[in-house]
């Protein structure tokens, strides 16, 4: 979809989803390109980041961030190029990442923009492995899971954006890594492309006990660290496998977004096994972002980290990409490439 030079397309949230979102929760609009005030820049977005947290923002339920207002541009990170500038900090031609929303053009006062070096990696990587996704995996893995060589690390949603980086970071530390993912195609990817030692297809297991047995069969010495992207029944299945003084990075709860919360039945293992389970939000740790991005860049450039991506084309594809992410269609980071 191509707008003329005086207008561009954007997607607004039209109604709140009841459970998981559907296409009619979104509306495509064509609007006029704004005129810049002093201090503002106009960014032409090249890639949109599609993330599970968007479901939480679409609802009015309890969350760590306010809800997305109806009738306004869908929130979300994007990477793009500055095409007009009245801000000395950000000249035309700079490439930036920011909360620029699901739109082809975005106006910004520059305050929350992060300049990126597209010589270091392709533009899309700055939303994935060298962006919020990569830093999330880095924080949970290095600051909470604290893996040491020879220990066993389990990662759920291992074929996804954060999980895929987490698997590779643990492998880079010399750990035995067991992934959990939905389907044989994803498990093949987790093992063959990301280097995990084993991967359990959770769709073959009816309950937490069966899942736990399957994961345990690949972790003969128990589990030292669990990077949890899923919560619910999957956390319940892994908890009994944890070794004493094990660590659990509570990164996400994707099995529970938009659904009825589930009670944990294995929480007593937190005490019995003296576990440290810590929830985190990557935005609380901005002080560590420079270190994380440097380490991730080094690993990417040395070939120890690969950047898996699923790319949908065109602004009109964003709602389906978001719905698809929540039903597990993506392999690696889900992005939308704008024309
Ligand atoms: N704490 C933070 O600061 C932070 C920051 C970013 C992301 N996160 C969290 O990290 C997790 C991964 O995010 P991501 O961006 O990397 O997304 P992603 O893993 O690329 O995509 C989501 C994946 O979750 C899996 N999934 C969906 N519904 C599921 C269910 N009911 N049960 C089990 N798996 C399910 C699907 O993979 P399968 O086909 O394998 O099921 C899907 O591909 C999410 O929980 C997200 O909220 C947290």
Plain-language structure description:
The chain is an alpha/beta fold and 339 residues long. The chain has two domains: 7-128 and 307-337, Medium-chain alcohol dehydrogenases, catalytic domain (Quinone Oxidoreductase, Chain A, domain 1), CATH 3.90.180.10; 132-283, NAD(P)-binding Rossmann-like Domain (Rossmann fold), CATH 3.40.50. It contains nine helices and 15 strands. It has helices at residues 53-58, 132-145, 161-172, 184-192, 208-217, 232-238, 268-272, 289-301, 318-326; strands at 7-13, 26-32, 41-49, 78-85, 95-98, 105-108, 114-115, 152-156, 176-181, 198-201, 223-228, 242-250, 276-279, 309-313, 333-337. The mean pLDDT is 94. Bound molecules: NADP nicotinamide-adenine-dinucleotide phosphate. NADP nicotinamide-adenine-dinucleotide phosphate (NAP) is lined by residues 51-53, 133, 136, 157, 159-163, 181-182, 186, 229-230, 251-255, 280-282, 325-326, 328, 330, 334.
Unreliable stretches, pLDDT < 50, 5 or more residues? none
Describe the main β-sheet briefly: 7 strands, mixed
| CATH architecture annotation name of the largest domain | Alpha-Beta Complex
**Beta strands, count:** 15
Name the ligand types.
NADP nicotinamide-adenine-dinucleotide phosphate
CATH H-level superfamily of the largest domain: Medium-chain alcohol dehydrogenases, catalytic domain
Give the DSSP E fraction (strand runs of 2 or more residues).
25-35%
User: What is the overall silhouette?
Assistant: globular
User: Which radius of gyration do the C-alpha atoms yield?
Assistant: 20 Å
Question: How far do the termini sit from each other?
Answer: 7 Å
Kindly report the CATH topology of the largest domain.
Quinone Oxidoreductase, Chain A, domain 1
Helix content: 25-40%
Average predicted local confidence, pLDDT: 94
Structural class of the secondary structure composition?
Answer: alpha/beta
Would you state the CATH class of the largest domain? Alpha Beta
Please identify the oligomeric state: single chain
User: How many distinct helices?
Assistant: 9
């Amino acid at each position: 979809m191509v707008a003329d030079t005086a207008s561009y397309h954007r997607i607004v949230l039209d109604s709140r989803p009841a459970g998981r979102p559907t296409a009619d929760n979104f509306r495509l609009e064509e609007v006029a390109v704004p005129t810049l005030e002093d201090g503002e820049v106009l960014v032409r977005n090249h890639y949109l980041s599609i993330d599970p947290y968007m479901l939480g923002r679409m609802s009015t339920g309890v969350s760590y961030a306010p809800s997305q207002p109806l009738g306004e541009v869908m929130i979300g990170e994007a990477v793009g190029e500055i095409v007009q500038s009245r801000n000395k900090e950000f000249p035309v031609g700079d490439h930036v990442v920011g909360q620029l929303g699901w739109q082809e053009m975005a106006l910004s006062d520059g305050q929350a923009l992060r300049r990126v070096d597209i010589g270091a990696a392709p533009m899309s990587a700055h939303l994935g492995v060298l962006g919020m996704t990569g830093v999330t995996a880095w924080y949970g893995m290095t600051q909470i899971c604290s893996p040491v060589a020879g220990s066993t690390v389990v990662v759920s949603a291992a074929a996804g954006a954060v999980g895929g980086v987490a698997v590779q970071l643990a492998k880079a530390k010399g750990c035995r890594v067991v992934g959990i993912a939905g389907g044989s195609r994803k498990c093949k990817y987790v093992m063959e492309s990301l280097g995990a030692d084993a991967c359990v297809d959770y769709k073959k297991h009816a309950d937490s006990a069966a899942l736990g047995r399957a994961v345990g069969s690949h972790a003969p010495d128990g589990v030292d660290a669990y990077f949890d992207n899923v919560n619910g029944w999957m956390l319940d299945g892994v908890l009994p496998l944890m070794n004493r003084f094990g660590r659990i990075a509570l990164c996400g709860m994707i099995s529970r977004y938009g659904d009825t919360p589930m009670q944990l039945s294995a929480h007593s293992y937190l005490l019995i096994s003296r576990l440290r389970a810590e929830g985190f939000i990557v935005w609380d740790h901005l002080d560590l972002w420079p270190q994380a991005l440097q380490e991730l860049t080094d690993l990417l450039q040395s070939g120890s980290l690969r950047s898996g991506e699923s790319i949908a084309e065109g602004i009109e594809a964003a709602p389906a990409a978001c719905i698809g992410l929540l039903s597990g269609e993506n392999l690696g980071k889900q992005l939308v490439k704008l024309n």
